[in-house]
């Protein structure tokens, strides 16, 4: 299975990552990626940048080392109402918004509370994708959330770092259930390395193995094609990115 988009990566700006966006793009080029989503942590995470960092991503070139750069964020789910930690002024500057639970921002609670928060995130319409859902500290009603994601055209990430046990240890079984149920529901999957160092860009082998285990076809994984990925963004109401027109 060929993956051409890494939809979850971090730079020095996140506060606990170790490479620049130029180093990440160079690694992406070397590994054969066509698009790279740069998705640093939003302001509520300790060490994360001010929201101006995200509003100013318009200064980034659309191509670095011949790899298309998608301007993004890993936003934090802050409450059961599904609010994220960016002001409304930020979203017009962003191509790709991941919404994730992080323990320092949203203390693990009950399955019911996690489920309510995720359903509200989806319905609020700001998130394009739900990040690293396999975290065992944030159990939720998988079928209910994935059905809602399908209905509202919100993607579901399979996070390679979670599967590797580098973070969110114990995620593998939950990720497997998410892929199994998501396949049957017809959700749109994406793949994120969650790289915090440039050498981990495009490290997605465990995610692809999980898709293959459950027989998920490439057509259901938007990161297998620039056209699938970019047209998913238009389905989400995002404008066509003129510099990427040949990739649609």
Structural description of this entry:
The chain has 248 residues and is an alpha/beta fold. It has a single domain, classed as Metal-dependent hydrolases (TIM Barrel, Alpha-Beta Barrel). Helices cover 31% and strands 14% of the residues. The protein contains eight helices and eight strands. Strands 1, 2, 3, 4, 5, 6, 7 and 8 form an eight-stranded mixed sheet that branches. Strand 3 (63-64) and strand 4 (67-76) form a beta hairpin. Helix 3 (111-124) runs parallel beside helix 4 and helix 4 (142-151) packs across helix 6 (172-185). It is globular and about 45 Å long. The protein starts with a strand and ends in a 13-residue tail after the last helix. Residues 5-79 form the Polymerase/histidinol phosphatase N-terminal domain. Keywords: Hydrolase, Metal-binding, Zinc.
Characteristics of this structure?
single chain, 248 residues, alpha/beta, TIM Barrel, 8-stranded mixed β-sheet, 8 helices, 8 strands, 31% helix, 14% strand, globular
């Amino acid at each position: 299975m060929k993956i051409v988009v890494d939809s979850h990566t971090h730079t020095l700006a996140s506060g606990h990552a170790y490479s620049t966006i130029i180093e990440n793009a160079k690694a992406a080029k070397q590994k054969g990626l066509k698009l790279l989503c740069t998705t640093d942590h939003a302001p509520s995470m300790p060490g994360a940048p001010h929201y101006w960092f995200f509003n100013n991503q318009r200064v980034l070139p659309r191509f670095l080392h011949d790899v298309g750069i998608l301007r993004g964020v890993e936003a934090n789910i802050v409450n059961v109402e599904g609010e994220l930690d960016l002001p409304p002024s930020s979203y017009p500057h962003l191509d790709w918004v991941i919404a994730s639970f992080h323990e320092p921002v949203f203390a693990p609670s009950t399955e019911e509370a996690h489920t309510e928060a995720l359903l509200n995130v989806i319905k609020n319409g700001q998130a394009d994708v739900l990040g690293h859902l396999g975290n065992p500290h944030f159990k939720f009603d998988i079928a209910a959330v994935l059905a809602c994601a399908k209905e509202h055209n919100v993607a579901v990430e399979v996070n390679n770092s979670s599967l590797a046990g580098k973070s969110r240890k114990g995620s593998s079984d939950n990720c497997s259930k998410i892929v199994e149920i998501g396949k049957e529901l017809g959700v749109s999957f994406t793949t994120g390395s969650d790289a915090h160092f440039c050498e981990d860009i495009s490290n997605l082998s465990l995610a692809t193995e999980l898709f293959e285990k459950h027989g998920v076809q490439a057509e259901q994984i938007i990161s297998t094609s620039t056209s699938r990925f970019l047209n998913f963004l238009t389905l989400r109401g995002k404008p066509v990115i003129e510099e990427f027109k040949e990739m649609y």
